[in-house]
Amino acid sequence: MTSxxxxxxxxxLILIGMWGLLTHRNILRIIIAFSLMGTGTxxxxxxxxxxxxxxAPIIDRALNLSEAPVRAVDPIPSALVVTAIVIGLAVxxxxxAYAIRLYQSKKTLSIDAxxxxxx
Amino acid sequence: xxxxxxxVLSVAFFGLIFSSLAINYTExxxxxxxxxxxxxxxxxDLGAPNVITGILLTYRAFDTLGEVAVLFMAAAAVGLLLxxxxxxxxxxxxxxxxxxxxxxxxxxxxxxxxxxxxxxxxAYIIMNGHRSAGGGFxxxxxxxxxxxxxxxxxxxxxxxxxxxxxxxxxxGVFFVLTGIAGLIFAGGFLDSRVLPLGQFGAFISxxxxxxxxxxxxxxxxxxxxxxxxxxxx
Lengths: 119, 233
Fold this sequence. Notes:
The complex is a heterodimer of chains A (about 120) and B (about 230).
Chain A: H1 2-23, H2 27-48, H3 68-71, H4 75-106
Chain B: H1 2-24, H2 33-46, H3 51-59, H4 61-91, H5 93-99, H6 105-127, H7 136-153, H8 161-185, H9 209-230
Helix pairs in contact in B: 2-3, 3-4, 4-9, 6-7, 7-9, 8-9
């Protein structure tokens, strides 16, 4: 039940990001929409790894070794998302750097001004 | 108008697919076989209580190495894109302090108090990656946040790019050397069992995982700090 709610939230975030990507003309807004899509994907991936009544896969006093395979959530999506968040930050940085360079060349952030590579 | 209709149509189409995904999804009652074996093997074979760190730094450590390389590529790309405008100020650090206004007293004093605390917190997160929630990636991001606070607080503060790049390269070299040591003395590339496993759950345990965590934290912290520095006016 919990993971259904989280999964739906993640998918809704992806849709919102996609809508922003397709309708906005300002490059900064497009970058924000892109980040929203990325965040939605992360939330969705974590939700898929959830197991009913599961807890974090860390062996300590609350979760001993013998019951870990029954009570822990899937560690693989979490491990993937940890790296995906850092890579997402780096990709956002590259997009923002491009936005700065585009602004320097045309003095505007509207994507309608950049028609050179349009077909 | 055409464009708007196209946007509505494509979002509605994806929404249809996503809603069928969300409706038909049933929560798992037990772990997949691969996940179950990871949960069992990481504490037993690697001696690390945190299963996720065990996966990141041993079973899929090669992926982690590749992801750090992607991060390095991103830092290089940002440097390439924004490097030209920053070239002038490297030679004349006094110029930037004239142009950029310093932040208020509150932010400056806050940064002086918070930066050491953030550094200690980052070290705590990195060094406890194998025992509880934490690890190199997260701790590196926390280090970069302290650099961001310093950059925000004083316009005069210059990060030493040479020091950062040398530290980062050294961390990368040691990471790969540990991997090669795993190839020679243990089961394969980046096998963390080159060092003794120690007592389960102790501060220094789980073989080479804490060492790899520290190297990863240093590398990620340096790369993100350099990226942050590039975005200064």
